[in-house]
Write a structure and sequence with these properties.
single chain; about 600 residues; Rossmann fold; 6-stranded antiparallel beta sheet; 16 helices
Length: about 600
């Protein structure tokens, strides 16, 4: 029998060898976890929303969740939770937010070619109550009975049982070897020229997408793509006459990648819609620099629903004569507490007496007068504006006190030029060629940024709408003129300059309270914190509450609850009164 490799050039055999080694390294290093489905058969007292959090190795995070609602109460419903294409260490299931009895009949984890069913006795072994459950018992013929006694009843997987089961069910390396090595070998033996290596590249691209490598730019990505591109050029040189095959291979490769990413994109997550409504109009006034500011001396009623359930209803927001969220006057206060930040500071879903600035003032016992300069969507740039302008501070009668900036990771993107978002006319900062702070300015004020706007406008208007793979890369890569490191450094310098502006006007200390890191990496948080501390700024990382279920106003809304606001205010007050030695900032949220 004639060898399939006879007649193949050394260049082509080398290409196959390089590709095969690269593919094996990726498969063995990163594993492969195709999207899996966890089905829960459950019966609750009333229609409700169930939320499944998953831990991929860094702890449970507010963004790592899927949700599903039940249409009726008193009957069993089948809830389908699609897990992402990553390794899942543990899961935590929040069983709505109503008290009463809940029965879980079974859980079924479905992978590509196998599955696993947890019967009641298996759930009792691999799971345990997490919050607001005071009864946990197997009922023969029905399932695992839970009695919910609080707002957020939840059970969580324990030990290595769930992770081992997940790995056994979901991992399918044999399929990867077949698709990403077997098929390219066939292509090598049957398809001539450049078309073959285009197919190699498309296979490797799809493999890297599903292995998770392309969630960020990594060294292995650069090496593999560089090697594949070089091999393509070599093949193109030796196969200049195979124009038709080149064209066919290119279209086949693009089609395969598009189809794969489209299937990935349409994986359901069943997240119920979140909607916030306001009773009164005109409560946000246009502002030339800030875009919009809360109206002075205004009373607003806000409500929020997730699915068919209220998170909060008719919560009253009031503002003072400067448009700040109201804090009652403390006539005997000798010190001020200026609070800057976003909706966390403003108090999304909180009454006036539940916001963090109010809680701090109340717990300080009359020593401090709080001034709340936070608002929805704001960040460090708005703080810099208030401290630079000074007009908003002219009624602060206490000349000594503290300034507090409440930080979440998303403030990095709010403070620096944004290309993919709609708020392109907001004040932003960046670093100039010398590393100094440049700003504030609008994106439209810079010629190079306007070019990026036009470019992204064309891509967003045509390719993003038409191509799943373009959407994939635009959403994941740092698309724009500012690198992640520059964003972190620029935001830190905005905070540092804000402290200098504060020191020029008042006598006191400057604090940064870090709530959540969001999408920031640990090294980026450390860089941000080190820059602040080097310039005399106190940095406090908000610790987890004893019961994490008490931290947010809803599992699908990560804004702090009233209990968490008091928790943070208490820690801030303790740090002011009893300064501790700076510690390394470690955040799992």
């Amino acid at each position: 029998m004639k060898s399939p490799f006879k007649g193949q050039s050394k260049t082509r055999l080398l290409a196959l060898a390089v590709y095969t080694i690269a593919a094996v390294l990726v498969i063995r290093s990163f594993g492969y976890y195709p999207p899996t489905k966890l089905t829960v058969t459950v019966k609750g007292p009333v229609p409700n929303s169930y939320v499944l959090y998953y831990d991929t190795g860094g702890g449970f995070n507010a963004a790592d969740l899927v949700a599903h609602g039940t249409n009726n109460g008193g009957e069993f419903s089948t809830l389908e939770f699609w897990l992402p294409d990553r390794e899942i260490k543990n899961v935590r299931l929040y069983c709505g937010y109503k008290t009463g009895e809940i029965i879980i009949k079974e859980m079924h984890l479905e992978g590509l070619s196998s599955g696993h069913i947890w019967k009641p006795e298996d759930m009792a072994r691999d799971f345990e109550p997490y919050t607001d459950i005071n009864y946990w018992q197997i009922v023969p013929g029905q399932g695992l009975l839970l009695r919910a006694v609080g707002a957020w009843p939840a059970l969580t997987s324990v030990g290595a049982g769930f992770n081992k089961t997940f790995a056994d069910v979901s991992q399918s390396r044999w399929l990867l070897y077949l698709i990403f090595i077997g098929l390219p070998v066939i292509l090598l033996m049957t398809v001539p020229g450049y078309a073959r290596l285009v197919s190699y590249l498309s296979f490797m691209l799809t493999l890297l997408v599903y292995s998770g490598v392309l969630n960020g730019i990594s060294n292995i990505t650069v090496v593999i793509f560089g090697g594949m591109a070089a091999l393509c050029l070599v093949e193109l040189y030796y196969s200049r006459k195979d124009f038709v095959l080149v064209l066919m291979g290119t279209f086949i490769a693009i089609f395969m990648v598009e189809l794969g990413v489209l299937a990935h994109e349409h994986m359901p997550n069943n997240l119920p819609k979140k909607d916030t409504t306001y009773k009164e109009r005109g409560w946000v006034l246009p502002d030339a620099e800030l875009g919009g500011v809360p109206a002075p001396d205004f009373r607003q009623e806000a409500s929020e629903t997730i699915g068919n359930n209220y998170v909060f209803k008719d919560v009253v927001y009031t503002t003072d004569h400067k448009g700040r969220r109201s804090c009652p006057e403390v006539k005997q206060a000798k010190k001020h507490a200026l609070f800057f930040g976003c909706s966390f500071t403003w108090g999304h879903g909180m009454r006036d007496d539940q916001t963090m600035p109010y809680c701090f003032q109340d717990m300080a016992g009359g020593e401090y007068q709080s001034y709340n300069y936070g608002f929805i969507g704001w960040g460090a740039a708005e703080m810099h504006h208030f401290l630079r302008d000074g007009a908003a501070l002219d009624d602060v009668r206490q000349k000594e006190g503290i300034a507090v900036y409440d930080f979440i990771g998303d403030h990095i993107s709010r403070t620096t030029p944004r290309i993919k978002e709609d708020r392109r006319d907001d004040l932003v900062f960046r670093l100039d060629k010398s590393g100094n702070l440049d700003g504030p300015f609008s994106v439209y004020d810079r010629k190079d940024l306007r070019a990026w706007l036009r470019l992204f406008g064309d891509i967003n208007g045509v390719l993003v709408e038409a191509s799943p793979s373009v959407r994939f890369f635009v959403n994941r890569f740092p698309f724009g003129p500012v690198s992640r490191e520059e964003r972190v450094k620029a935001t830190a310098k905005v905070v540092i300059e804000s402290k200098m502006l504060y020191d020029s006007r008042f006598k006191g200390e400057f604090y940064v309270v870090i709530y959540e890191k969001d999408y920031l990496r640990d090294d980026e948080i450390r860089l941000f914190v080190s820059m602040l501390r080097e310039n005399g700024i106190h940095v406090i990382a908000v610790p987890r509450m004893p019961n994490p279920a008490d931290e947010n106003i809803h599992p699908l809304d990560t804004h702090p609850s009233a209990a968490r606001n008091r928790w943070v205010a208490g820690h801030l007050l303790d740090e002011i009164n009893n300064p501790s030695k700076p510690a390394d900032i470690v955040l799992t949220r």
